[in-house]
Amino acid sequence: MSLKDIKHIALVLSGKGGVGKSSVTTQLALTLSLQGHSVGVLDVDLTGPSIPRFFGIENAKVRQAPGGWIPVPVHDAQESRDEASTNGHMNGEECASQARGHGSLHCMSLGFLLANRGDAVVWRGPKKTAMVRQFLSDVHWGALDYLLIDTPPGTSDEHISLVETLLKEATPEQQAGAVIVTTPQAISISDVKKEINFCRKTGVKILGVVENMAGFVCPNCSECTNVFSKGGGEVMAREFEVPFLGSVPIDPMFIRLIEEGKRPVYPEGTVIEGQAMETDGHTAGDESRETGLLVDKYTACSLYPIFDGMVKQLVSAIET
Fold this sequence. Notes:
Blueprint: E1 6-13, H1 21-34, E2 39-43, H2 51-54, E3 63-65, E4 68-70, E5 72-75, H3 81-87, H4 92-97, E6 105-109, H5 125-138, E7 144-150, H6 157-169, E8 175-182, H7 186-202, E9 206-217, E10 224-225, H8 232-240, E11 244-250, H9 252-260, E12 271-272, E13 275-276, H10 294-298, H11 304-319
Helix pairs in contact: 1-11, 5-6, 7-8
């Protein structure tokens, strides 16, 4: 019954490891939150749970509740400046620091349950299957607009258990479908094609393909170089007649945001998706770059306009 108040459940899948599923899941969640939706992220990559690190909440612990667990909060919902000012809920200093609102964001991962961050999870298939089912039945998400499920690579026990449990516990209206992640290289695409076939065999709708690591954004001159080529994901999407959501380059500033918590700073004149990247008065040595919520700092990242367009496509496809 933990899924009953969730409007839409979407999987993030790939047949290949190392293509950036967790990175894509994190940015989809942050962008959905910035568009005002309440979001949950469930990490079912049991042997390599990385979602806690992406959201900067590695040291958090899950709270017990009668009959299950309460997910770890990343941030609570917050009204936009205009709404809060109109309602009289925000003072002048808060107005200056918070321009946009966002929906709430919560996470659940096996990483929160391990005694030590470096502990290995050495489980056979039946144990993994039981853990996935427990995650889907015993986490008290409450009311959510979207639940994103970050999965391990391949089409193994976790995926079969996940799809079987969702078919039993979730209504067809809740089951939004899957986002497929690949990189541009042919060796990656050949494995990701198997994931598309898995979705078709199990009846999972494919919401679209994201081509990750399609280029490298230089932190000095902001030029984007296609070090891993580009376009393979779009060709695959056309071949299988599924939507292509877009290409995402590698941005070292996003990596610094996740690893160090610093707000991205770009050279003057950097333009991404037709939008000039602003630093909001922050400089490379400014200590204030490290303060604030992850979701607010992410808006200064060059990848945010790209994911903003992707998420609008997804929301339109899911809700219509």
